[in-house]
Design goal:
Helix Hairpins; dCTP_Pyrophosphatase (chains A, B, C, D); NTP pyrophosphatase, house-cleaning of non-canonical NTPs (chains A, B, C, D); about 110 residues; mainly alpha; homotetramer
């Protein structure tokens, strides 16, 4: 992920504006944290915010994640699956079922 | 995005552990911000951190983004494209080329 | 704030370790966001976390805020009061009482 | 910290607006993370942002930290000093001098 068309659109958007020079991995990591804060702001005082606003903020987070994966030369699907396997080992069904205890305390 | 297989794996992981009860949109938004902080931590004192660690933290951010999109009933590709169109209007190539000035000051 | 003794302790801690070289304003701003994520993690799945853990994470956020204020040459009490005056203008009691609507929509 | 006058001003501001009902510890922890993201935004693409803007965003972070300390019934100076003692043990001068290696790898 994303689809090849979406990836091409994102890359064209950045190329047209000559913004690649600003997209260091570090700046992209900062941008992800900043946008994650804006997404969280939707839920600052309410657990049922406007859905369109949430979708826009979530899209911003994911957009920067796609840019960072690009820079790192990795595919998001691949790293999500690889991390899921690690997490599955840390949280075996037998111990983790129905509770959110940190794996170090399971 | 993600691919149908990755989405199925993520859903099975959560279902097996009976964790869906904890995945309110608000908790997922908090989780995205928390994981974005851990991703940023890779770059806290260095601009060239260990790539494996960065990939794992990026995967955590994206995993929660996938879960939240699921809860909202939206596709990540769709909302990324829709947001890109809005951003393209706010940052016309003519004004934004080569600089990161906020659109309100362009 | 903080008290002169606390400020002196923080400065001595940094000086002894020769860490001032790492404390650029940008690195401190990243550190504040990272520690704010760790504080939020206390509340990721629960609204009643362990108080000692919360206090430690809150202390980390505030410690980096003190270091940043130091770098900027400002006093935290001063900037808090000055910002409070601005916020009071944006949120007049008459309009804001009892609700968390953003000032742009009051 | 803060000074008694600043604390009194912050409390009066909240009381006049009847906002205490929204200031659960969890909402305050979210607010600290949100404001830390806005502070970080000052440094998103530049390491030398406008100082007034930085001061305002830093003030927002600290304001919510003061509110949270209040809710928890603790004094910020006290918890900062207590945490500093713990950190000093994890990072002995002998091992930590001049480098930012995590204590688990010192």
């Amino acid at each position: 992920m994303p689809s090849p068309q979406v990836l091409a659109s994102l890359r064209a958007f950045v190329a047209e504006r000559d913004w690649d020079q600003f997209h260091s991995p570090e700046n992209l990591a900062k941008s992800i944290a900043i946008e994650a804060g804006e997404l969280l702001e939707c839920y600052q005082w309410s657990s049922a915010p406007d859905q369109n606003r949430v979708e826009d903020e979530l899209a911003d987070v994911v957009t920067y994640c796609i840019h960072l994966a690009n820079k790192l030369g990795v595919d998001l699907d691949d790293i999500v699956v690889r991390k899921l396997e690690k997490t599955a080992e840390k949280y075996p069904v037998r111990l983790a079922k129905g509770r959110m205890t940190k794996y170090t305390e399971l």
